[in-house]
Structures are given as C-alpha cells and as structure tokens.
Structure to design on (162 residues):
C-alpha cells in the first residue's frame, strides 16, 4: 500500500505584520512555544421556529477570527507594534508563514490588535498579541493557501486601504 504524504502547517510560524496602507512587513520574534492560535467564533445562528418547536429555516451570520500569540520581551528585541496600555492605533495586515514553506500560509487583510503585558518567574516578561479580524473589501477575513496564492493576495493588498 502506498503512503500518502500530507503537508501540515504546524511547527514554528514566522509572523509578520504591517499597517494597512503600508508595503513593508515587520517580523515578530519567534512566539513562545504552543502560544500561537487562530480561533474561530461561530457566527450567530438565526432560526425560524414554527409551531411544534422545529425549524423551517436556519441561517448563520459570519464567523469571527482571533489570532493570538505570545512573545518574550527582552532588551535585544524591538516590537513591530507600539501599544500604550494595550491600545494599538490603526489596523494591521498579518502574514503567517509556516515552518515548511510547502504548507499552507495565512493572510489577514484587516485586523485590530490589542497587546497585554504579563510576567511570571518561569517565563519573564511576555506580551500577548491578540488580532481580531475585520471584514475586508473583498475575500475572506482569513485567507489560507499555498505560498504563491497568499503572496499574490498580500501583494495586491499592499498599500491599499483594504
């Protein structure tokens, strides 16, 4: 029996950001192990309930996405995002490059960001970056695909107001 190869986007990601309207990417330091997550909050469910308690129709609103990761804060690093008490001005685009460049990449055209500072004796100072996706002018909130597809989308969105 032949084995089937699958290319999974796991491992150490390279996360880059830029302000919406800019063209230059800025990289984050490698995130703290197992801290990088892309979570989906299912859109609200609307039900048309009829007598007897069954539905004659169901509709869902759009999902919401949140990208979260932690980066250790050390004097040798400069953050690509400036926050004051967690508040970050403007909107950002995010590019997630997988460890294996043959795996799927991800691109978020528009997101707002919040930053939380924390400290533990085990990890020292860390910042948690939380990006909440916003509806782009076209396409998905989170686009995934091979390197060529995602780089083309990111190039098309560069300098645009998304």
């Amino acid at each position: 029996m032949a084995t089937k190869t699958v290319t999974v986007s796991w491992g150490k990601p390279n996360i880059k950001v830029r302000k919406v309207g800019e063209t230059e990417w800025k990289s984050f330091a490698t995130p703290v192990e197992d801290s990088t997550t892309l979570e989906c909050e299912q859109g609200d469910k609307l039900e048309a309930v009829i007598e007897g308690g069954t539905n004659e129709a169901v509709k869902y609103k759009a999902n919401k996405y949140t990208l979260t990761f932690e980066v250790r804060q050390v004097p040798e690093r400069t953050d690509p995002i400036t926050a004051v008490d967690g508040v970050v001005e403007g909107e950002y685009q995010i590019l997630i490059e997988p460890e294996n460049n043959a795996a799927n990449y991800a691109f978020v055209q528009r997101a707002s960001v919040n930053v939380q500072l924390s400290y533990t004796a085990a990890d020292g100072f860390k910042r948690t970056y939380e990006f909440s996706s916003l509806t782009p002018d076209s396409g998905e909130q989170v686009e995934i695909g091979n390197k060529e597809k995602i780089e083309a989308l990111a190039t098309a969105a560069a300098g645009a107001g998304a």
Remarks:
- The mean pLDDT is 94.
- The two ends are 48 Å apart (CA to CA).
- Helices lie at 147-157.
- The CA atoms of residues 114 and 148 lie 30 Å apart.
